[in-house]
Amino acid sequence: MKIIIIGLGNFGSSLAVYLTETGNEVIGVDNKMEKVDRLKDTIAHTVCMDATNEMAYEAVPLKNADIAVIAIGENEGATIIATAIIKKLSKAKIISRSLSAIHDTVLHAMGIEIIVHPEQEFAEALAKKINLKSMINNFELDPYHSISEIKALPEFEGKTLQEIDFRNEYNLNIITIIRKEVKTTLFGTRQSLGKVMGAVNKDTVVIANDVLVVFGANKDIAKFCSME
């Protein structure tokens, strides 16, 4: 996809790099040259411009963009103006960063459906990792259900999924297993990497250090994680 990211601070630049690494064509925009220079050799294209100046967008291929991400931080006014300009000039799907509840209200009134709160969302994810020690990663599907990566309990080692009986014992469904593999790098060092096993079945055996990818209700995932 062709993605334009407005604002190359910590959030915007990290997003730009990750989206580039996953095969997207990313154009990064910021009004500070040092931020633009930092990414010019990493992503497809960078532009130094004032995102609140409608005329400046002549340098950006908005009409060809699939998604525009407004990632500006610390300046609600600039975020709102940039969002309004892109909404006027492009049919791209807009994802806008919000800095406050009032900011949310304004963006909703503008018809922006996807609003993100990076700091809040990271804090919530980190709190879950701290409170639920077995949890590694978590993706909420709705307020009540999630897909989570959780550490296999020591007592699971050597048992099949049928023997563990996740569905009946823990009210959780196993999607797949991430298994650690040790590989030698080009520099001769050994590195531990997680490899997704793909589809698992009742005869799949859990081994030490496996990470289980499960689907279930948040309360059941939390209950399982508290068993460590």
UniProtKB/TrEMBL annotation:
The Gene Ontology biological process terms listed for this entry are: potassium ion transport
A Pfam entry, by short name: TrkA_C
Q: Which residues form the RCK C-terminal domain?
A: 134-228
Task: State a single Gene Ontology molecular function.
Answer: monoatomic cation transmembrane transporter activity
**PROSITE patterns (alphabetical):** RCK_C, RCK_N
Annotated InterPro entries: NAD(P)-bd_dom_sf, RCK_C, RCK_C_sf, RCK_N, Trk_Ktr_HKT_K-transport
Q: Where is the RCK N-terminal domain?
A: 1-116
Which PANTHER family has this protein been placed in? KTR SYSTEM POTASSIUM UPTAKE PROTEIN C, POTASSIUM CHANNEL PROTEIN 2-RELATED-RELATED
Could you tell me what this protein is called? Trk system potassium uptake protein TrkA
What is the organism field in this record? Sinomicrobium oceani
